[in-house]
Amino acid sequence: MEAKGSVRITFTTTPSGGNYAPNNVVAAWIQNGGGAHQRTVGLWSAVRTVYLRSYVAAAGAIENQLPADAISEASRLNHQGTLTVLWNLKDKAGNLVPDGTYTIRLELADENSATAAANNQGTFTFVKGPNPQVQTGLTNGGFTNVTIDFDPNRVACGDGIVDAPETCDFSVQGSCVVNQTGCATADKCAPTVFMGSPTACTADCVPQPITECIGGDGCCLDACTPENDSDCIPGNNGGGGGGGGDDSNLTGGCSTGATGGLAVFALFGLCFVARRRR
Predict the structure, then answer these.
(1) In the predicted model, what is the mean pLDDT of residues 149-153?
(2) Whole-angstrom distance, CA of residue 139 vs CA of residue 42
(3) Are 13 and 26 in contact (CB under 8 A)?
(4) How many angstroms separate the CA atoms of 102 and 94, rounded?
(5) Model confidence at 44, in pLDDT bands (50, 70, 90)?
(6) Average pLDDT of the chain, as a whole number
(7) Which of 173, 207, 209 is nearest to 193 (CA)?
(8) 3-state secondary structure labels for all residues of the chain
(9) Which range scores top for mean pLDDT: 11-25, 66-80, 158-172?
(10) 251 has a pLDDT exceeding 50
(11) CA triplet 2, 202, 71: central angle to 5 degrees?
């Protein structure tokens, strides 16, 4: 049977006073009761991982090379929003860890830190056992609004199986899109955007239908006209098909387009000629 159970950790960050602030890099990882690194569960560091000094020491990271158990998202531009990571209760070798007390470590750097003391360092603990537990409102080392939600029966992210409500599983190669460049748009009137997080098994390309007449977006909706949408000007190969635009080579929208209108007109003409002959 598939192993269940996971810990969901959510938190917000604050600057640590570095010269690159508000730009920052963040790492989240798990240690056992003896302080040994169990698994990396979150990393937002495109190229500056080496300055996350505590994380590098714990995970055995090499400069300019991520640890084997880490999947990195882009470095952060600010401290807006809440970060969420999910641990599937397995170590970096893929083995389910035994019950006991585990430490959640968080680190943030916004400078070329020479020592770990220059960075924000958050430390939190929880007990893995048969009973669920939720800790809320925690604050430590520059990390605030921390929630630790342990559920021994929750579907586990990173278990090699995509279970609802997961949209992907980062342990399955090619399962998760990593960023916006992985989202292809076939319909210009419903462009896809990157949402979610691969480390939380929620990454996906989600269609965002265009609902307004705006020039230059490549889409001409049925309700739009050349007067309020430059994409509807005849000859513009922009998407959709409203307002008299030439959409014979377009994708998107649901218009019958100019070709459909000519077909109806031709059919009407044939019927008229047949009646005159009779």
Answers:
(1) 93
(2) 18
(3) yes
(4) 17
(5) very high
(6) 82
(7) 207
(8) CCCCCEEEEEEEECCCCCCCCCCEEEEEEEECCCCCEEEEEEEECCCCHHHCHHHHHHHCCECCECCCCCCCECCECCCCCCEEEEECCECCCCCECCCEEEEEEEEEECCCCCCHHHCEEEEEEEEECCCCEEEEEEEECCEEEEEEEEECCCCCCCCCCCCCCCCCCCCCCCCCCCCHHHCCCCCCCCCEEEECCHHHCCCEEEECCCCCCCCCCCEECCCCCCCCCHHHCCCCCCEECCCCCCCCCCCCCCCCHHHHHHHHHHHHHHHHHHHHHC
(9) 11-25
(10) no
(11) 85
Residue 194, CA atoms < 13 Å, CB-side half-sphere: 15
State yes or no: pLDDT of 235 exceeds 90. Answer: no
Relative to beta strand 83-87, strand 133-140 is unpaired
Give residue-wise pLDDT tens across range 168-194. Answer: 988 888 888 888 788 888 888 998 889
Contacts of 60 (CB under 8 A, 6+ apart): 37, 67
The residue with greater pLDDT, 185 or 219, is: 219
Residue type, 223: A
Dihedral sign, Cα of residue 135, residue 118, residue 32, residue 6? positive
92 CB contacts (<8 Å, ≥6 apart)?
Answer: 37, 38, 39, 40, 67, 68, 69
Asked if 203 contacts 176 with a C-beta cutoff of 8 angstroms, the reply is yes
